[in-house]
Every structure is written in structure tokens, then in C-alpha cells.
Design goal:
This protein has helices at 7-18, 50-64; strands at residues 22-27, 33-38, 43-47. With 65 residues, it is of the alpha+beta class. It has one domain (7-64). It has a 3-stranded antiparallel β-sheet, covered by helices on one side. The two termini are 16 Å apart.
């Protein structure tokens, strides 16, 4: 099976490994909030909600095994 990785996948995985990964709730420009997946450098990716952000991180942890 062919698997690919994007730059954001690598950045999230590295931040998780380094212990600098954070999920931060922020105001959305469309009303409500969104979740910024970030590290000590800044925002890596944005998810619609906490469940989506946690699923994204869990997926990458599983792929790293």
C-alpha cells in the first residue's frame, strides 16, 4: 500500500515527538471557534473542532508506529 506524507503531517509528527504540540481554540472568522494545531514556532494546521484535531493527531501517531 502506498502512503504519502505532506509537510504538515511531518510538522505535526515532529512537534508531537518533541512535546511542543498544542491544540489551541481560537475565534473563527466565520463565527464560533476553530482549533489551531500548533507548536512553538506557530500554527501548522487548523481543524474545525477539537474532535477533528484530536483525530488528526491520533491518525499521525498511528501512522508513525
Amino acid at each position: 500500500m502506498l502512503r504519502t506524507l505532506s509537510a504538515t503531517c511531518v510538522a505535526i509528527a515532529l512537534a508531537d515527538k518533541r512535546g511542543t504540540l498544542r491544540l489551541v481554540e481560537r475565534p473563527s472568522r466565520f463565527g464560533g471557534t476553530c482549533i489551531a494545531i500548533e507548536d512553538d514556532v506557530g500554527v501548522i494546521e487548523v481543524a474545525d473542532d477539537l474532535a477533528s484535531a484530536e483525530a488528526r493527531v491520533a491518525e499521525l501517531r498511528e501512522r508513525a508506529r
